[in-house]
Amino acid sequence: MSDYLWILFVVLYIVLAPFIGGMIAGIDRKITARMQGRYGPPLLQPFYDVLKLMQKENIVVNKHQKLYVLCSLIFIIVAGAIFFAGGDLLLSIFALALASIFLVIAAYSTYSPYAYLGAERELIQIMAYEPMVILTIVGMYIATGSFSVTDIGAYEGLLVLKLPAMFVGFVYILTIKIRKSPFDISMSHHAHQEIVRGLTTEFSGKELAYIEISHWYENVMLLGLVYLFFASNPILAVLVLVATYFLEILIDNVNSRLKWQSVLFSTWLVAFVLGIANIAVLGFLKYFL
Amino acid sequence: MGKRTVVPFGPQHPVLPEPIHLDLVLEDEKVVEAIPSIGFVHRGLEKLVEKRDYQEMAYVSERICGICSFVHGHGYCETLEGLFQVEVPDRAKFLRIMWGELSRMHSHLLWLGLMADAFGFESLFMQAWRLREKILDIFEQTTGGRIIHSVCKVGGLWRDVPEDMLKKIVETLEGMEGELQELANVFLKDYTVQKRTQGLGKMSAEEAFECGAMGPMLRGSGVAMDMRGLGQSGYEHLKFDPVVEQGGDCYARTNVRIREVFQSIDLIKQAIGLMPEGSIENKVKGSPEGECLVRMEQPRGQVIYYAKANGTRHLERFRVRTPTFANIMPLLNMLPGCDLADVPILVLTIDPCISCTER
Amino acid sequence: MGLGVMGKTVMRNLFGKPATVMYPVVKKEFYPTTRGSILYDESTCNYCTLCAKRCPSQAITVDRAEKVWRIDRKRCLTCNFCISVCNKDSLSCVQEYAAPVVKEFDSWLFQAERIAGEKIEGLEGQEGFSDKDA
Predict the structure, then answer these.
(1) Model pTM?
(2) Which helix (H) or strand (E) holds B5?
């Protein structure tokens, strides 16, 4: 990537990602509603929600909540910026993990029993999906020889042909990251559950708006990661993105929510079986043939 | 040894249909103890007998609860008919059975929707309530209201149902059976639903009987007790067996309620087939005197009505013992030892109708 | 975790018509038996006050001397008891119930013509309000 092109990509990401993420969220709600037999909200509803939340009164439990939520938002933007600037993939993923931890600390700092339970479950969620994400990055390194997003994106040939099992595993944990059933144990987007609103129980007003916007940034970045698997053929990649998201919505609507023990177990099983098998096969092919 | 926290569950909670308060003592997401408190919806309806005479009290009685409203009205009228010692004509009895079974169907479908919502499966919740709308439409076409029917009076009924309407009811119910079967398949055969309900809240037959469980709670543990088998108010002409399952856990109770929906369709078809012509009312004059006790089968279990009168137009005492009140004890026995994620499912498996419990 | 069991229903819903109704833009169809509101016929009433005594929620007030009949629509349950006790048949049932209120709370709010800015057939000229505050 030329010396100044990456600045353009970063700026585009920071400015456009909320709009793209919001539109994806709006389409998601509309399709979910039609699957359930209702009309559904207008497509721009997430934007109306965030704008209204910005005008609401902030009932703050603890002065430090705001700081932690802002840190979480900033680090998600940083993670996405590193990713779209073509930087180091490992650094980007760890910045994302840092942002999730900030959100968990924000929930813990409120002393509410429901937020506390939601924060514990969010930590278990992080523990569940991190192995798979790291195995994916390792697989990409073995396949292309580099951790940098620019090099992986410029790889000739479809990356998914070398990492098929990895792709399946990654889509499996994508369900956890975008908070959909059966894995939405800590904070579901639309269901109400036994821990009231889970992680975001004690947030209101501008903070809740920031959390919503940070989810949009995160979704765009994750979809970018899925795009990397098909980077050499952009049209195919976009089609795969649409199909994957539709599959996630379908899975959300045909499953109930599992308990955290099932989530942790099944995700680690998938990560270790699919991820390690794929890496073992790739490594064998590269170093012995 | 984890730290113990106390989580207040209710009275306002998105997963509860009605306000009940449980203080859950948790140790790392496992419930150790549960302390209930009820009384948030107490309206003093039983004291209202002093102000409303026995005919108007029928309207108050059916407003005790929105879900089981027909059975309350029916039970009140039967109790007063016992006091007056007047017999209701046969056509009225069969029509009351028909409406009672329709009420049971709509209550169980409502419960199935809430159960799906409790384990995070909203599309199933919407589907169950979509089917329930057809029954509410039948209610509106025959009685005039979707939830509050106002159709039972002391001595008979206010409204009759014409023949073509009865045929239409049978057609609608037969059309519903296919979709009901699909709904039942999702509840009983889907993997994630099975993981959430099987093995949860197990109660053996003796335990259920000892702590006073009623209705599907009891029948899901293998005890065949159904108040419709007492042979009164017209049920003696119908052929049916109580629906019993042996599992004793939440899965078995879900199965009992689903099978009861199908059984109700069958009972309605039998009742409409046997419906005689005739009047729907036996006029009642004067004031009641004496005491009377009536037991009936609500969708949630056995309900007992007691009325005492002393010769004036106002009753002296009217008491209702609802099944949810009896089912709270099994709930408190089932809660210790489960995860926090199971608490909504356990609370919903007793089918809590708290507005019945505290009138 | 199969898609099969619920998947069929979900896909059928996705490509079919929604089950809900866009109320209040689309009006609900009422059945002939729906209990909506009470209709009062002044010409046949003889002010015997039986309906006022019998109403379970005390929504009807009748002044025999002044020959005035009033109903508080906020308290009326449409149980139709008043219709059954009236021996002059001056009361009957109308299918439409009061539309959702969009104006500020005002004492003349529940006069029939002013409900949601629309006239309801048959309820014109009715006394629809109560001067007792609810």
Answers:
(1) 0.87
(2) strand B4-9
Tokens of A95: 């910045």
Contact B186 C34 (CB under 8 A): no
Would an 8 Å CB–CB cutoff place A36 in contact with chain B? yes
Closest residue on chain A to C10 (Cα):
A35
Q: Which residue has the tokens 């469980």?
A: B213
Instruction: Given the cut 0.85, state whether the ipTM is greater than it.
Output: no
Contacts of A184 in chain B (CB under 8 A): 120
Q: In a 3-state reduction of DSSP, which class is residue B37?
A: strand
Each residue's pLDDT, cut to its tens digit, for chain B (359 residues) gives 567 888 888 787 877 788 888 888 888 778 888 888 888 888 888 888 888 888 888 888 888 888 888 999 999 998 988 888 888 888 888 899 899 999 999 999 999 998 888 888 888 888 888 889 889 988 888 888 888 888 888 888 888 888 888 898 999 999 889 889 988 888 888 888 888 888 888 888 888 888 888 888 888 888 888 878 787 778 888 888 888 888 888 899 899 999 999 999 998 988 888 888 888 888 888 888 888 898 888 888 888 999 888 888 888 888 899 888 888 888 888 888 888 888 888 888 888 888 888 87
Q: How far is C16 from chain A (nearest CA, A)?
A: 8
Provide the Cα torsion A4, A10, A12, A14; round to 10°: -150
Indicate the domain borders of chain B.
43-358
Contact call for C56 and B150, based on CB within 8 A: no
C-beta atoms of C20 and A37 within 8 A: yes
For A249, nearest residue in chain B (alpha carbons): B123
For A31, nearest residue in chain B (alpha carbons): B123
CB B95 within 8 A of CB B74: no
Distance from CA of B341 to the nearest CA of A (A): 6
**Closest Cα of chain A to C28: distance in Å?**
16
Tell me the CATH number for domain B43-358. Answer: 1.10.645.10
Domain boundaries, chain A: 5-288
Q: Which of B55, B150, B189 comes nearest C5 by C-beta? A: B189
**Strands annotated E in chain C:** 37-40, 60-63, 68-71, 91-94
